[in-house]
Amino acid sequence: MTTQHVTVSKETNGAVIATALLAFCGILSETAMNVTFSHLTEVFHLSLGSLQWITTAYLLAVAITMTTSAALKQNMKERTIFTLAFAFFVAGSIVAILTNQFWLMIVGRLMQGVGTGMAMPLMFNIIAERVPLERIGFYMGIGGLIIGLAPAFGPTYGGLMIANFPWQWIFIAVIPIAVLAYVIGFLFLENSRAEKQKRPFNFLSFIMLVFALSALLLATSSLEAGQMNWLYVVIFAVALAIFIILALKDANPFLDIRLLGNPLVLFGLLPFAIFQFVNLSVNFVIPNFLTMGLSVSSSMAGFSLLPGTLLGSVTVPFLGKLYDEKGPRLSLYAGNVIFFLSMVVMSLLTKSLVLWSIIVIYIVFTMGRNMAFNNTMAAVQSQLPREKSADITAIFQMIQQFAGAFGTAISAVLVESGGDVMTGSQHVFFLMTVLVVLNFIFYKLMFKQFSTK
């Protein structure tokens, strides 16, 4: 398949860059915090299990906000959504900068998460709707490259900041990047000229989803104390049931969960979620494994993730082009094989790992993930009508962020309950390896749906 004759406007290019840069700021501040926990235990006098809410609360806010992206797209202009995303992110950053109280830090992180949760789906919607199908894979890769640079630099950035400046500088230094993103968006982002059909927003349904997702994370975190808090489980079950009933009754819900009844969507979504669950679990564990288990400095612990994530991010557009030219099967299966092999090594050799070996394994880990992750959503969208792209983006991006939050919470519980950091980390790696095996099954079931198109 050739893509050379297909052009994309400078306005679309600028809009993709602007929205991706704003999302970059949120992800940078998220991943930078993972290497600061050993220091923040002394600042806030809290355990690792409590501090992980700095990351988990942010990811939860991103996930919940992303559920509204399809409704926002139908009811608001793109420039308005982008401005609100910028305002929430900067306001949340200022709250986090000015506070020395943990609960206010969480409020700031929630606000940052809302901003990121608005910016990221906006970017993918612009790509899905304004980029020709022949170049979807490449542009998904470009968007993934910009966003992917954030976790590449995040841990190293966080480690250097915490070693040389007060921790608040992690948030201070990203604000100029957010301002740059807003300026680019102001210059290039155009509102869609297509007629929009207003989509009613069911607030009760939204609140039930918020309760369900929050309760599930709280129930998971309660395991750190050695037992499940069943009140959270009941709240989760009841709220989820009400949300599903309301969503199925609504002719035009803010999150169209009916799409999950399509096996193509379901079996594409499951491996997509597993990739993010495993990715953020490992990103949470490795810095803490190095700082608390091997007494490596915060700056070096952060650096351990830089080569892999940076190399992986740089190759994302080329992997997108491979998808465009060779189709999805090669990218998805080969990527999962590489991802699986890296997890096998990490789980079997956990207690023998040292800094250099973690760097090498993480390079392989990230290359495998990047080969399959974004291309999974592109593969699903390529088989569905374009008018469904906003709903598909909302579902995939919401599940991606919640899977990351859930993975972080599960990893914190397993590390805390392992007796020591090394044993707990090995338990995490074993669980992740099992989950990656399931991806092969889900991909096989997903590709069966391709043959019926």
TrEMBL record:
<feature type="transmembrane region" description="Helical">
    <location>
        <begin position="12"/>
        <end position="33"/>
    </location>
</feature>
<keyword id="KW-0813">Transport</keyword>
<feature type="transmembrane region" description="Helical">
    <location>
        <begin position="110"/>
        <end position="127"/>
    </location>
</feature>
<dbReference type="InterPro" id="IPR020846">
    <property type="entry name" value="MFS_dom"/>
</dbReference>
<feature type="transmembrane region" description="Helical">
    <location>
        <begin position="136"/>
        <end position="154"/>
    </location>
</feature>
<feature type="transmembrane region" description="Helical">
    <location>
        <begin position="260"/>
        <end position="278"/>
    </location>
</feature>
<protein>
    <submittedName>
        <fullName>MFS transporter</fullName>
    </submittedName>
</protein>
<feature type="transmembrane region" description="Helical">
    <location>
        <begin position="330"/>
        <end position="349"/>
    </location>
</feature>
<feature type="transmembrane region" description="Helical">
    <location>
        <begin position="298"/>
        <end position="318"/>
    </location>
</feature>
<feature type="domain" description="Major facilitator superfamily (MFS) profile">
    <location>
        <begin position="15"/>
        <end position="451"/>
    </location>
</feature>
<feature type="transmembrane region" description="Helical">
    <location>
        <begin position="166"/>
        <end position="189"/>
    </location>
</feature>
<feature type="transmembrane region" description="Helical">
    <location>
        <begin position="427"/>
        <end position="447"/>
    </location>
</feature>
<dbReference type="Pfam" id="PF07690">
    <property type="entry name" value="MFS_1"/>
</dbReference>
<feature type="transmembrane region" description="Helical">
    <location>
        <begin position="53"/>
        <end position="72"/>
    </location>
</feature>
<feature type="transmembrane region" description="Helical">
    <location>
        <begin position="84"/>
        <end position="104"/>
    </location>
</feature>
<feature type="transmembrane region" description="Helical">
    <location>
        <begin position="355"/>
        <end position="373"/>
    </location>
</feature>
<keyword id="KW-1133">Transmembrane helix</keyword>
<feature type="transmembrane region" description="Helical">
    <location>
        <begin position="394"/>
        <end position="415"/>
    </location>
</feature>
<dbReference type="InterPro" id="IPR036259">
    <property type="entry name" value="MFS_trans_sf"/>
</dbReference>
<feature type="transmembrane region" description="Helical">
    <location>
        <begin position="229"/>
        <end position="248"/>
    </location>
</feature>
<keyword id="KW-0472">Membrane</keyword>
<dbReference type="InterPro" id="IPR011701">
    <property type="entry name" value="MFS"/>
</dbReference>
<keyword id="KW-0812">Transmembrane</keyword>
<feature type="transmembrane region" description="Helical">
    <location>
        <begin position="201"/>
        <end position="223"/>
    </location>
</feature>
